[in-house]
Amino acid sequence: MFDTMTLTKTLGGLCGTFLVFLLGGFAAEFIYHPKHGDDHHQAYTIEVEGAGEAEEEVAEVPFADVYAVADAGAGERLWRQCQACHKLETGANGTGPYLANVVGRPKGAAEGYAYSTAMANFPGEWTPEALNEFLISPSGYIEGTKMNYRGMPDIEDRANLIAYLETAGG
Q1: Local confidence band at 48 (pLDDT 50, 70, 90 cut-offs)
Q2: Is 54 a member of any domain?
Q3: Of the candidates 153, 147, 93, 92, which has an alpha carbon nearest to the alpha carbon of residue 119?
Q4: Which has the higher per-residue pLDDT, 126 or 48?
Q5: Is 108 within a domain?
Q6: Helix or strand or coil: residue 125?
Q7: Rounded CA gap, 8 and 129, in Å?
Q8: Has residue 15 been placed in a domain?
Q9: Is the pLDDT of residue 54 over 60?
Q10: Number of structural domains in the chain
Q11: What's the average model confidence in pLDDT over 63-69?
């Protein structure tokens, strides 16, 4: 029943079908996404009420002002996500260094922790302002850090967490 010719015809038919789909995809791309150099023209424009008006600018509150009214209790709740890698007992390193008394401590100075070269050589102390900048984006603040954390975007959350770390020395 299945000889070489039947198998060849079947395989040719499948390849032909895929070729038709491939050419149809190219044709659809050409029709719906034409390339006319750098200037793309729309067929029509939808007017949006108030689109030409300038958006209201949101004034950013300085970190010092937010930190002055930070809630260490709220920071303790935020600390739970840090516990996976850090501990609050002096000398108890985990995946990350211990964070007991981190506020005011020199950067890269937790005893017994193997810091990345970038962190070990980064000058200064962990002031509340430095911790704030670090928590926005650790790899953006210290390129080459081992801390694989996407960052904490909310300024109030950062201030609350830092307030908790300052009170939770060990």
Answers
A1: confident
A2: no
A3: 147
A4: 126
A5: yes
A6: strand
A7: 72
A8: no
A9: no
A10: 1
A11: 94
